Amino acid sequence: TRSQYWYYDGDEWDGEIDGPMYREGEEVLYGSGRTNAGGVLSITLPAKERRGAPEGRDWRYTIYAMVTDAGGRMQEGQSSVLVTQGAFRLEARPSSWMAQPNEPVAVKIRAVDYQGKPAAGARGAAVFARVRWEDGKERLLEPVKRSWRADADGRATVTVTPKRDGDYRLTVSAKDGEGNRVTGETGVWVMSESYASFDYPY
After folding, report:
1. Which residues contact 29 (CB under 8 A, 6 or more apart)?
2. Is the pLDDT of residue 65 over 80?
3. HSE-up of residue 87 (Cα within 13 Å, Cβ side)
4. Contact status, residue 126 vs residue 105, Cβ threshold 8 Å
5. How far, in Å, CA of 99 to CA of 121, rounded?
6. In a 10 Å sphere around its CB, with 0-12 CB exposed, 13-18 middle and 19+ buried, how is residue 3 labelled?
7. Whose CA is closest to 202, among 185, 186, 189, 184?
8. If DSSP codes are grouped into helix, strand and coil, which group holds residue 46?
9. Per residue in 126-152, pLDDT tens?
10. How far is 93 from 110, CA to CA, in rounded Å?
């Protein structure tokens, strides 16, 4: 099975949760086999993302095994492996989850590896856009691009200014030393004081 993985650092953000988090797992492979003379059975996991799947995901793959010996005795075991986008992950958090049109919003970015060490000097782009769904498809409107570079602690900040009401997304991206594209995202809800319509076509 595989479960979507992300890490929430409570000490860094607001202290609510600290540690890795997972979504409910999905089965990706099922089968049987026979061990070799050394008692080893090798399997290959389909870790490549499906075409059209959203980017920016890390996965925890868990292998469950039930083995029966020649005498009919059964043993069970499990192990897991983390499959990541690259050598580090990107986290983004706005200064406020809600804003008004033309109100600047500072977004903190953190680049950190999977041992918790900062990815100093990581750099990339941040794209801020209004999200709208039309005919079952997501459209990103009025995109604004910013550049960022992490400091020695793996941190950076970009400031964006939404121009109108709606649901906005900021996607940050970078490449690791092997050229792997790494992404992360966050959202901001923008609403003017007089705007409170539930009929808005999000």
Report:
1. 43, 45, 46
2. yes
3. 12
4. no
5. 30
6. middle
7. 189
8. coil
9. 999 999 988 888 899 999 999 999 999
10. 9
DSSP alpha helix (H) spans, the chain: none
Query: 């996965």: which residue's tokens?
Result: 59
CA atoms within a 13 Å half-sphere pointing along the CA-CB vector of 136:
0
Amino acid at position 150, single letter? A
* The residue to which tokens 């986290």 are assigned: 91
* Edge-to-edge order in the sheet of strand 19-22: 19-22, 2-8, 58-68, 74-83
* Residue 202 CA to its chain's centroid (Å): 22
Q: What is the largest CA-CA distance in the chain?
A: 75
Cα–Cα distance measured from residue 145 to residue 140, given in angstroms and rounded to the nearest whole number: 12
Mean pLDDT of 2-31: 59
Position 198 confidence tier, pLDDT thresholds 50, 70, 90: very low
- Answer yes or no: pTM beyond 0.70: yes
Show the tokens assigned to 106. Answer: 């500072």
**Angle, alpha carbons 105-161-56 (nearest 5°):** 70
